[in-house]
Amino acid sequence: MQPATNVERLGGLSPTQRELFELRLKDRKSVQSQRIVHASGRQSYPLSFAQERLWFLEEWSGGNAAYNIALLLRLEGTLDIARLHGSLDATVKRHEAFRTGIRLENDPVQFIAPTVEFDLVVEPVAGEEEARARARCEAQQPFDLRIPPLFRMRLLRLNEQEHWLALTMHHAISDGWSIGIIVRELAAIYEDRVLPPLEIQYGDFAAWQRDGVQSGSLHNQLSYWIQQLAALPVLQLPTDKSRPRQVTYDGAGLNLSVSPSLATRLNGFSQGEGVTLYMTLLAGFVALLHRYTGQEDIVVGSPIANRNFTQVEPLVGLFVNTLALRAAVDGEATFRELVQRVTQVTLAAYANQDVPFERLVQELHPQRDPSRNPLVQVMFQLQNMPWPILRMGDLLVAPVENESSVCRFDLEFHFREEPELSAWIQYNTSLFNAVTVRRLGDHLLQLLEAAVSQPDARIATLPLLAAPERAQVLSEWNGLATDYPRGASLQQLFEAQVNATP
């Protein structure tokens, strides 16, 4: 599922906040007024900044599956396998990203293969558990970026009326938004519907992005980020395990249930404050990190779709950008004040979102620490676009949830409205145990419960412990009274203990 767009995130803003946002957008108008030109017949392009970082990470780590994207689709009904294969082939021919590889010339470049061969392997499986295991195994196999295609497909056959399509892609050629494009176009081609031609391809965008940065058209935005992210702190979350010397991507996830009553109160509070639900949840997350670390300067990463041109909206490719949201927070501030502070930071970040995150890393030169991600160590996201009900002829198409064994940051909090509010926490298993992450998630919900009930309470006073955990800490763990021989002296008691356990 793709990251939310600006319009979706800003829907609940007050008139004053909208006015501020419009003022900050002025610097972007000259960028967005440009059109990207298609370079016909070109077989290689520069890497986008995001691709360049992924290429570097692959070269540095020797290749792994940390940046694989896995899509698992349930196809219910009578499936024409030959027709499905033809639809997939047409989609691959339509988008150059599917035929892209990366090679090193003087600099790394992306090259487009005229054609690529792929097989739609059909594998019988004995039920959903085996199908999920096969899909996870497939997603954990690395790619060689030098050899396109950077995708694989498996068709898992559960029975005559149910198949699961497992699609694994490297992040260098795709992102969350791209998944929606792939599914919609696959359904359209399967039904023999005609798709409009693409004006440009991903390589054209990458060349345009490079030219824009080099020409200085993003100078004002880059200046904003350099100032905003100067002397950036490192988040010091307490971990269960010693941090490895080199960053790992071993991950696991768990669901976090949000009660309907809390979801209603969160939405009501957001509307009353003239902010979006995203900003209220983000403020709660920032407050939680402050309470856990004691730090008053918190930086959180947040993905954004970064498709600000109609030309790139229908393209498969890596467009998603990461915004580094930096908020000052202290225990004396109220939650209401923090929400407004976070809102101002977020609006400014949206208005300067065209600068690639990877470019910021290059410009800011953070101290190299191979055990941590640069600039941000935790991610936060609200996904508010439910999966549409799709059909492919007589087939009903729906996504299948499958647990990921990868975490690219220390922690990732993903809230979703589909249509009820829920959350998924992805965590690095080299740092955290599941019980710790579960407790952290429960503490966030408890903090949000208290915050929307008492928004003018100081952040330092908002309770993190629910009643059962509070009773455990204050009573059960402190119930230390015990009988002992009251007629004996301390020396005699000590000698008795020495004799009992020498």
Structure notes:
- This protein has a 6-stranded mixed sheet, sandwiched between helices.
- The mean pLDDT is 89.
- It has one domain (6-468): Nonribosomal peptide synthetase, condensation domain (Chloramphenicol Acetyltransferase).
- It is built from 16 helices and 15 strands.
- 39% of the residues lie in helices and 19% in strands.
- The longest helix has 20 residues, at 434-453.
- The protein is an alpha+beta fold and 502 residues long.
- The chain is globular and about 95 Å long.
Relevant terms:
502 residues, alpha+beta, Chloramphenicol Acetyltransferase, six-stranded mixed beta sheet, four-stranded mixed beta sheet, 16 helices, 15 strands, 39% helix
How many independent structural domains?
1
What's the CATH architecture name? Answer: 2-Layer Sandwich
Low-confidence stretches: none
Percent of residues in helices: 25-40%
CATH topology: Chloramphenicol Acetyltransferase
Q: Tell me the strand percentage band.
A: 15-25%
CATH class: Alpha Beta
Which class of secondary structure composition applies to the elements?
alpha+beta
Please state the overall shape, judged from the principal axes of the Cα atoms: globular
CATH homologous superfamily placement: Nonribosomal peptide synthetase, condensation domain
